[in-house]
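Translate structure to sequence.
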């Protein structure tokens, strides 16, 4: 019992630290800064949309980008990444209605050592003409009116080289409501947004669905070639710009940028996470073991202590184990509430965080197994080979 109590108390202290000293990761208040004066003139923007087999998605999302009212020059370039479902044809039909804003670029075969999406982004960057800013966005992302102008004002008013917003993900199906908010929660735990936004801070990240980049800063950093093989392209891009450009990066939450991607079941979300979780650990078995141990202590030890303490209490033992376990369970549940509010889901779901921690731990282990089986990073029939383990 003493050992269990000691582990539970360590978990309690860890949660106290995470709540008070880990960059406020659990809060969702990092929103676009108040707009400064409008730039004069408004800079030209090229929106680059890598698209691989997205024929069904484009009619829902691309018109929201093409319809942005922007005072400067906006061009949208869809890079057809070797699609097999008629993506280029659908885009061409939308191009006829875009008043010249949309261009469709047939993607070239992916060279060895490049991730397919990063290669598509690089082709878009190469075709960006005189655009001062490049908006890297995904084919499943829809934009509320005025979003692009707000992004540009945030970038120009304070000289930021990257402004990125975490898209609001879909939570219509049961599996989405269960797992998607937790995905955002764990991402923010890894990369606390407040630390990403801190001037001179080391934490760097971005959200790949919406990344407005100052083109000159990206080219000064070597373009996309330094991250050519990145499976987690958004985090890699944020790190590249923060390390090499010396400029400020900003990452925040929003309800104006929305993903329409559908995840109907557990298997689809599992694949999405397992595709890159081991990459985040730099393919290190030691990091994997440490992560699994840490997740067990943070998310499973408190509930184990709470339930085990209740059993011992019924047998006449002291209540300290149960008290410690429930304290940790309450603390972790409190940290999940802001994300649940963001997604307009019941606060009662916060109590499920131990289960979610166990599921995401299993997904991470699955990611490592896929990597060692040669199937790491597999997506839409393509597997990205690991070229660097920095």
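Result:
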């Amino acid at each position: 019992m003493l050992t269990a109590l000691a582990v539970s108390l360590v978990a309690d202290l860890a949660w106290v630290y995470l709540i008070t000293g880990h960059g406020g990761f659990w809060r969702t208040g990092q929103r676009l800064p108040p707009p400064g004066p409008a730039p004069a003139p408004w800079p030209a923007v090229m929106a680059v949309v890598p698209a691989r087999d997205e024929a069904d998605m484009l009619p829902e999302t691309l018109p929201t980008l093409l319809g942005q009212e922007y005072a400067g020059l906006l061009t949208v370039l869809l890079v057809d990444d070797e699609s097999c479902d008629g993506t280029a044809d659908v885009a061409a039909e939308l191009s006829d209605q875009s008043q010249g804003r949309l261009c469709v670029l047939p993607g070239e075969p992916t060279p060895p050592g490049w991730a397919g999406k990063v290669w598509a982004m690089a082709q878009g960057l190469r075709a960006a003409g005189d655009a001062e800013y490049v908006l890297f966005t995904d084919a499943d992302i829809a934009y509320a009116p005025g979003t692009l102008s707000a992004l540009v004002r945030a970038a120009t008013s304070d000289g930021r080289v990257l402004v990125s917003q975490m898209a609001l993900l879909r939570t219509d199906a049961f599996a989405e409501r269960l797992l998607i908010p937790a995905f955002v929660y764990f991402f923010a735990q890894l990369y606390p947004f407040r630390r990403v936004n801190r001037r001179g801070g080391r934490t760097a990240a971005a959200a790949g669905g919406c990344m407005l980049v100052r083109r000159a800063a990206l080219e000064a950093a070597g373009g996309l070639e330094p991250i050519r093989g990145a499976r987690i392209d958004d985090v890699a891009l944020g790190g590249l710009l923060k390390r090499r450009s010396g400029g400020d990066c900003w990452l925040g939450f929003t309800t104006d940028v929305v993903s329409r991607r559908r995840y109907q079941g557990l298997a689809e979300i599992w694949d999405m996470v397992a595709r890159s979780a081991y990459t985040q650990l730099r393919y290190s078995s030691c990091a994997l073991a440490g992560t699994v141990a840490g997740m067990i202590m943070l998310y499973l030890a408190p509930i184990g202590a709470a339930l085990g303490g209740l059993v011992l209490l019924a047998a006449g033992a002291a209540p300290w184990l149960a008290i410690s376990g429930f304290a940790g369970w309450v603390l972790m549940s409190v940290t999940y509430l802001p994300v649940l509010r963001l997604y307009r889901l019941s606060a009662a779901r916060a109590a499920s965080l131990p289960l979610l921690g166990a599921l995401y731990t299993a997904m991470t282990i699955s990611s490592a197994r896929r990597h060692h089986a040669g199937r790491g990073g597999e997506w839409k029939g393509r597997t990205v080979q690991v070229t660097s383990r920095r």
